[in-house]
Design goal:
Blueprint: E1 2-5, H1 15-19, E2 24-26, E3 33-35, H2 45-54, E4 60-63
Antiparallel strand pairs: 1-4, 2-3
Protein backbone atom coordinates (compact mmCIF):
# COMPACT_ATOMS: atom_id res chain seq x y z
CA UNK A 1 0.00 0.00 0.00
CA UNK A 2 1.14 3.51 -0.84
CA UNK A 3 -0.38 6.55 0.84
CA UNK A 4 -0.64 10.02 -0.65
CA UNK A 5 -2.11 13.13 0.91
CA UNK A 6 -3.34 16.26 -0.80
CA UNK A 7 -2.41 19.15 1.48
CA UNK A 8 -4.51 21.60 -0.52
CA UNK A 9 -7.62 19.56 0.37
CA UNK A 10 -6.77 18.93 4.03
CA UNK A 11 -8.93 20.84 6.53
CA UNK A 12 -7.02 19.78 9.64
CA UNK A 13 -9.81 17.64 11.07
CA UNK A 14 -7.34 15.21 12.65
CA UNK A 15 -9.39 12.07 12.04
CA UNK A 16 -6.42 10.49 10.28
CA UNK A 17 -4.21 10.99 13.33
CA UNK A 18 -6.82 9.44 15.60
CA UNK A 19 -7.20 6.41 13.34
CA UNK A 20 -3.54 5.85 12.41
CA UNK A 21 -1.12 7.85 14.59
CA UNK A 22 1.88 5.86 13.36
CA UNK A 23 1.18 6.99 9.79
CA UNK A 24 -0.25 10.51 10.17
CA UNK A 25 0.47 13.57 12.29
CA UNK A 26 -0.54 17.23 12.16
CA UNK A 27 1.50 20.39 11.74
CA UNK A 28 1.53 22.57 14.84
CA UNK A 29 1.08 25.84 12.99
CA UNK A 30 -2.08 25.01 11.02
CA UNK A 31 -3.16 21.45 11.83
CA UNK A 32 -2.63 20.13 8.31
CA UNK A 33 -1.67 16.51 7.84
CA UNK A 34 1.90 15.24 7.92
CA UNK A 35 2.45 11.86 6.28
CA UNK A 36 4.89 9.91 8.45
CA UNK A 37 4.92 6.69 6.40
CA UNK A 38 4.12 6.66 2.68
CA UNK A 39 4.45 2.86 2.63
CA UNK A 40 3.10 1.65 5.97
CA UNK A 41 3.65 -1.95 7.08
CA UNK A 42 0.87 -4.47 6.53
CA UNK A 43 -0.24 -4.44 10.15
CA UNK A 44 -1.22 -0.76 9.79
CA UNK A 45 -3.21 -1.10 6.56
CA UNK A 46 -6.60 -1.44 8.25
CA UNK A 47 -5.97 1.67 10.35
CA UNK A 48 -4.84 3.61 7.27
CA UNK A 49 -7.98 2.57 5.38
CA UNK A 50 -10.06 3.74 8.35
CA UNK A 51 -8.19 7.06 8.35
CA UNK A 52 -8.83 7.59 4.63
CA UNK A 53 -12.51 6.74 5.08
CA UNK A 54 -12.83 9.12 8.05
CA UNK A 55 -11.14 12.07 6.34
CA UNK A 56 -13.80 14.80 5.98
CA UNK A 57 -11.98 16.37 3.03
CA UNK A 58 -11.11 13.12 1.22
CA UNK A 59 -7.48 14.28 1.23
CA UNK A 60 -6.00 10.78 1.62
CA UNK A 61 -5.44 8.59 -1.41
CA UNK A 62 -4.56 4.90 -1.05
CA UNK A 63 -2.85 2.94 -3.78
CA UNK A 64 -3.24 -0.75 -3.10
CA UNK A 65 -0.38 -2.84 -4.42
Amino acid sequence: MKVRVELDRCVGGGQCVLAAPDVFDQRDEDGLVILLQASPPTELHDAVREAAHACPALAIELLEE
